Every structure is written in structure tokens, then in C-alpha cells.
Amino acid sequence: MLPLAGALKQAGFRHSLCTTGQHRDMLAQVFAAFGAAPDRDLALMRPGQAPVALLSSILAALPPVLEELRPDLMLVHGDTTTALGAALAAFHAGIPVGHVEAGLRSHDLTRPFPEEANRVAVDAIAALRFAPTAEAAANLAREYGAGRVIVTGNTAIDALLAMAGSLPQPPAPALPRILVTAHRRESFGEGFRRIAEGLRRVAARGDVELLYPVHPNPAVRGAVHEALSGRPGITLTDPLDYPAMIQAMRACRFVITDSGGLQEEAPALGKPVLVLREVTERPEAVATGVVRVIGTDPARIEAEAALLMDPGEYAARARPVFPYGDGRASARIVAAIREFLG
């Protein structure tokens, strides 16, 4: 959202950046990387807080802010509980909503959970739907008719390309490095145990190193450290700040992840991605051949990683692709907002 905030300011729009505190530490370092700060911090997150508790807190805390500011438009990004709560609060206040990253669909409300349900609900509320791809726009057209659907690309690619262009080339690791992230709620329990076993098998090759920045969610940290801490060939770290994460992607051979964002960002940097899920809301990335959905079966994780260690297979799949934008999504969104507001 920060590239969009900058584009709005440059275009002369007054705006206010509001956060709920969801993923506070991760959000703070992104703001720092872009030299920005929120105008409002509702500070609603609590340790161990369930999504429904956060949602109820947002619906209680945001209406007074909206009453004070009376914005002409509320912009929300993605599929977080924060996006859903903000959209609902704006809807009840009679304020139009613009949804950035609209139209992504896995077509299974339980995967990812609760993100798929969140984004479907936000799209139902939104007056402006900023779709990152033509396929996302087609999803919206099937559900709501043509309406105000604008294919813009994703502002996440705006941010990625701007930041990557400002960073030096990272040093090459001693061994081929595999960047790993996994944090989805649908993988809690048995899913994480299967993922960990697959990662142990990959590390046991002895000719690679795995770098795993671990998500701050206590349920994730506990499971990951219990299963993988001290294992040869696997390095667990705290979450990386935004520039460091970009450098980690640039330095790695490929990515193993259940993240939605990395399915967009890593391919733009020419890095193949193995997705630790059964379905994805980003089929455009899969269609390029750079991204492959592999699930959580340990044998499949081991086999797919081995394929990407083959020089011929790697050469065919390690290429930059840009299904989610060219770095100009923010400019297109600003133009659409200007037309909408008159």
C-alpha cells in the first residue's frame, strides 16, 4: 500500500494511513524501509488473539476515526482480517471502499483460512475493485458483473521493483540456498509436521542450505523450532525486514513457501517457487511454469526440490515473469480513483 500512498500524495490527494497493529513488527520495518509512518495506529493486536477477536476490535475502534475524518473513499489491501474489518466499518458508515488486490480466488473458503473468505467479503462490499490480473477481473465479473473493475497489477510489485532497484547485488552463498517460509493456519498441526519432514529430507542432501525466517505467530514459531532447530543445513532466523527479504530472494536458488505474496514477488526476480498448499489463488503464476503447487507431502517436497537442483530443469524455470504487474499499479489506481471521485 505504501507505493500507492506515495502516488496519491504526488497526485494531490489528502490521505491518512491507518494500521490496526496486525503484524506490527513486520509492518514497522516496511514503513521504515520506505521512510514512512502510519498516521493512525489503533494498536488493537494482543498476544494469541484470534482473528474474530481482532475483527470485533476493529469494528469497535474504527468508526470514531471515520466519523472524525469523513473520507470520500476507504482503501484496503489484500485479504487480512484488518482489510475485512476496515471494509465493513466503512460500509456501515456509508463510505465507498476500494479494494486493492481484488478478485483473487482459490475457490475454497477454507484454503487459505480465513483469507479466502475475507477477500470474497471485501469484494462484495467494494465500490472499486482493483484487480491485479485479467483472470482476477474475470472472477469479479462472474460474481458481480462488470461494475467498477479495473485491471491494475499489484502494488506489491510496485514496491518490490522500486526497492530491488535501490539495493546492491547480494553476495552468492557458499552452497545453493533455498529460501523457506510457511505460516498458513490451514497447515497448523499435521501440516507443519509434514512440511518439517520434507524440509529435513531436502537438507539431508548435504549440497544445499535452507534459510527459514520464521513467522512471529507463536503457533508457527513453536512448531518450527521444535521440528527444525539445530538440524544440519537448516538456519532458522527471526523475520527479515523488507530489504533483507528481497536480498534473500535474490540470493537464493529457489523458494519453498505457502505465502501468497512470495508467489508474486519471487517470480518477478526470476526465482522458481514451490507452493506448500493444495490450491492457490494465483493461477497466473502457475501458468508461467515458474511456480508449482506441491502440497505438504514430504516425499513430494523432496522430489520437487531435487528437480530444481537439476541444471536443465532449473534453467527452464528460473526466469523473471510478471503476471502481477509492471510496477505501475499505483498510477493506474490513482487514475481510477480520480475518475470515480470526479
Automatic annotation (TrEMBL):
Catalyzed reactions: UDP-N-acetyl-alpha-D-glucosamine = UDP-N-acetyl-alpha-D-mannosamine
An MF annotation (GO) of this entry: UDP-N-acetylglucosamine 2-epimerase activity
Assigned EC number: 5.1.3.14
Alphabetic keyword roster: Isomerase
InterPro entries according to UniProt: UDP_GlcNAc_Epimerase_2_dom, WecB-like
Gene3D superfamilies: Glycogen Phosphorylase B
Domain UDP-N-acetylglucosamine 2-epimerase stretches: 9-337
Superkingdom assignment: Bacteria
Top EC group: isomerase
Signal peptide: none
Keyword NAD included in the entry's annotation: no
Family affiliation: Belongs to the UDP-N-acetylglucosamine 2-epimerase family.
Entries under NCBIfam families matching the protein: wecB
Name of the protein this chain belongs to: UDP-N-acetylglucosamine 2-epimerase (non-hydrolyzing)
Organism: Rhodovarius crocodyli
Organism classification: Bacteria, Pseudomonadati, Pseudomonadota, Alphaproteobacteria, Acetobacterales
